[in-house]
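Design job #97: recover the sequence.
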C-alpha cells in the first residue's frame, strides 16, 4: 500500500484558535499522514502568553474540541501529527509543567501525545527553558507499515551547549534494536535568516545519510513582530532534495514516500558550520586585512528583500495599518526603504513620502527625492522645517536666556521631523516606517525621538554597505527604482554645513566589519586590533557602541534577517562600567 505524506506549511496568527482548529478539521482527511509544524495548535513564539490563564483556558478548550471532533470521526486511514502544548496544572489553576509536544490525531479515537521536545534552545531570541520542561526519550511512530523517528525543531541541531544530541541517541537506539526507519520527521518553528536555508539543507542531508532514510522537515510561516518564519519546508533523501515548499507563503503538498529514495552511500559529515554554533557564523572575509564583510550574492539579496517585504506586511496587517509614511531625505537609507515599501504594496494600501528640507539640505537632495517619487508614482509632500527650526531656536533662547548650537541644534532639526511625521501619522492613520540602518544604530548615529522614530525598522539589521548592495540589486532586478545620484553620493545627515558621515565615523567598509566583529564574534579591543584594524578606529567605534546602549533599548522593533541582530535577541545592560572593553 502506498504511503502518502501530506506536509502542511501553515500561516496563522498567534493564539488564533478558531482559525487553527478550523484548518485542522478541514484538512485532516483522505489516506495520508498529515504533518504540521511545531506548536501548530498555538503559534510560536508564545513568550509569557503561555503563562496567562485566559490563554491556557482557551487553548485547553480548543484542544478538547479537536479531541472530541476526532473522536466522533468515522475510523479512516488518515492520521495527523501536529505540534501543541501539554499542561500539567497546579490545584490553583496555574501551570506546574509545560511541554512542547507532538500529538497524533486519530479518527475515532482523538488526540494522543507521542513525543516531547528534548532540546530547549536558550540563546539569542529563544528562551524555551524559561517555559518548557524537556522530554527524556526517543519516539518512533508507525503509519501504514512505515516506521518514523520523531523530532521537534532544535532536536536536529547538535551543539556543545546542549548536554545531549537527540540524533545520536536515536541512532544508537535504532542500531541496538535493529530498527528500519522509513524517515525522520521534524516539526519546526525555525526563524528566517539570510542563507539559513542552505544550512538547514546541509544538516538535513547529514541526518538523512546517518539514518539511511529521508528527512522530512515541516516549518511554519509568519511574522511575529520582528521575528520572521519562512516556511521553506522540504524532504531530503540522502544528498538529494526531493521536495521543497514555498518561501514566506502558506503551502500544502502531498508526497508519496517511495518517491524519496535517494543515495545513501555517502558518510555524513557534521561540520561546525552545520551545527547550532554554525548558525551564528559572522559574515566576515578574513582573507583581507583588515577584514571586510562578505558581499551578499544576488540570491541572498533576493532572500532578504522577500523577508523584509513579508515582515512589513505581517506587522502592518496584524497592527491594522493600510497606509505608510516615510521621511524621504534624498539619501540612501530612506530611498531604499521607500523602494521596499513600494515593492510590498498590496491592493488597498498606499505610501506617502514627506521631504522636510532644512537650511542645510542640498538642492540635489530635493531634486533626487522628487525624481525618485516620480519614478515610483508616489506622492511627495514638501514640508520645509527651516522656519520651524528658527522659531524653536528663538523661543528657546528667550525662555532659557541662552542659545543652543552644535549637536543640540542638529538634534532639534531631527526631532522636528519626527514630530511632523507623527502628526501626519495621527491625521491619516498611517504607519511610520523607520529609516535607520544597523551601522547607525550600533554607534548611536541617530537622534533619539528624531530620525530613530518609527513603528518598525526595515534596515535595522542591515549594515550600511549592505544597504548599498541591496539597493543595487533592486535597481538591477526591479527597474531603476532608485536614482543613481542617490547611490553615488556621500552619506550625510545634512544637519550642519557640508556635513558628511565620514567626518564622524570610519569609512563604512571598515566600520561595518568592526561592528560585525563586536556583535557576532563578541570581539573586544584586543581581538579587533589583532584582526588588523587601527587602534584609533577601534577605540572610537567601541566608545560609540558602548555609550549608545540606551538608544538601542528604546528603538522600534527591527525585522530580523540575520543570526545576530539588535532587538529581541540582543540583551545587554544599559548601565555598566565601560572600561572593561576599552582598555
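Job complete. Output follows.
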Amino acid at each position: 500500500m502506498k504511503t502518502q505524506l501530506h506536509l502542511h506549511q501553515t500561516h496563522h496568527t498567534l493564539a488564533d484558535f478558531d482559525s487553527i482548529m478550523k484548518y485542522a478539521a478541514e484538512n485532516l482527511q483522505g489516506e495520508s499522514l498529515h504533518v504540521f509544524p511545531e506548536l501548530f495548535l498555538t503559534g510560536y513564539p508564545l513568550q509569557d502568553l503561555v503563562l496567562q490563564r485566559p490563554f491556557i483556558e482557551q487553548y485547553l478548550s480548543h484542544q478538547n474540541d479537536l479531541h472530541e471532533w476526532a473522536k466522533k470521526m468515522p475510523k479512516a486511514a488518515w492520521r495527523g501529527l501536529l505540534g501543541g502544548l501539554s499542561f500539567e496544572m497546579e490545584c490553583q489553576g496555574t501551570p506546574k509543567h509545560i511541554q512542547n509536544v507532538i500529538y497524533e490525531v486519530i479518527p475515532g479515537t482523538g488526540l494522543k501525545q507521542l513525543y516531547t521536545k528534548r532540546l530547549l534552545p536558550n540563546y539569542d531570541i529563544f528562551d524555551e527553558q524559561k517555559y518548557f520542561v524537556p522530554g527524556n526519550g526517543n519516539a518512533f511512530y508507525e503509519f501504514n507499515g512505515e516506521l518514523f523517528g520523531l523530532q521537534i525543531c532544535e532536536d536536529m541541531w547538535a551543539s556543545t551547549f546542549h548536554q545531549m544530541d537527540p540524533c545520536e541517541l536515536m541512532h544508537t537506539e535504532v542500531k541496538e534494536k535493529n530498527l528500519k526507519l522509513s524517515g525522520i520527521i521534524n516539526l519546526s518553528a525555525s526563524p528566517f535568516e539570510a542563507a539559513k536555508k542552505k544550512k538547514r539543507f546541509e544538516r538535513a542531508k547529514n541526518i538523512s545519510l546517518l539514518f539511511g532514510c529521508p528527512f522530512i522537515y515541516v516549518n511554519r510561516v509568519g511574522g511575529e513582530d520582528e521575528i520572521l518564519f519562512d516556511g521553506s519546508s522540504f524532504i531530503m533523501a540522502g544528498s538529494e532534495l526531493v521536495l521543497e515548499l514555498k518561501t514566506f507563503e502558506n503551502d500544502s503538498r502531498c508526497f508519496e514516500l517511495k518517491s524519496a529514495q535517494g543515495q545513501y552511500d555517502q558518510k555524513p559529515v557534521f561540520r561546525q558550520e552545520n551545527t547550532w554554533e554554525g548558525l551564528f557564523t559572522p559574515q566576515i572575509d578574513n582573507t583581507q586585512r583588515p577584514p571586510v564583510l562578505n558581499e551578499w550574492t544576488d540570491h541572498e539579496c533576493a532572500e532578504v528583500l522577500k523577508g523584509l517585504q513579508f515582515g512589513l506586511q505581517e506587522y502592518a496587517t496584524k497592527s491594522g495599518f493600510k497606509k505608510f509614511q516615510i521621511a524621504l531625505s534624498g539619501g540612501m537609507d530612506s530611498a531604499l526603504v521607500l523602494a521596499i515599501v513600494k515593492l510590498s504594496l498590496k491592493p488597498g494600501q498606499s505610501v506617502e513620502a514627506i521631504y522636510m528640507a532644512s537650511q542645510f539640505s542640498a538642492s540635489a537632495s530635493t531634486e533626487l527625492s522628487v525624481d525618485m517619487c516620480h519614478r515610483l508614482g508616489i506622492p511627495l509632500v514638501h514640508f520645509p522645517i527651516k522656519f520651524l527650526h528658527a522659531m524653536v531656536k528663538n523661543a528657546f533662547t528667550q525662555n532659557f536666556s541662552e542659545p543652543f548650537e552644535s549637536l543640540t541644534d542638529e538634534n532639534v532639526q531631527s526631532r522636528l521631523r519626527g514630530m511632523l511625521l507623527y502628526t501626519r501619522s495621527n491625521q491619516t492613520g498611517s504607519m511610520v516606517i523607520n529609516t535607520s540602518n544597523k551601522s547607525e544604530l550600533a554607534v548611536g548615529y541617530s537622534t533619539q525621538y528624531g530620525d530613530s522614530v518609527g513603528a518598525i525598522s526595515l534596515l535595522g539589521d542591515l549594515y550600511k554597505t549592505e544597504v548599498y548592495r541591496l539597493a543595487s540589486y533592486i535597481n538591477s532586478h526591479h527597474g531603476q527604482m532608485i536614482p543613481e545620484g542617490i547611490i553615488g553620493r556621500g552619506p550625510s545627515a545634512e544637519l550642519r554645513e557640508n556635513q558628511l558621515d565620514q567626518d564622524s565615523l570610519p569609512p563604512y567598509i571598515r566600520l561595518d566589519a568592526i561592528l560585525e566583529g563586536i556583535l557576532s564574534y563578541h570581539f573586544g579591543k584586543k581581538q579587533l586590533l589583532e584582526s588588523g584594524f587601527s587602534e584609533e578606529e577601534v577605540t572610537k567605534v567601541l566608545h560609540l557602541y558602548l555609550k549608545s546602549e540606551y538608544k538601542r533599548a528604546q528603538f522600534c522593533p527591527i525585522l530580523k534577517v540575520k543570526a545576530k541582530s539588535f532587538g529581541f535577541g540582543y540583551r545587554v545592560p544599559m548601565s555598566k562600567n565601560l572600561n572593561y572593553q576599552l582598555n
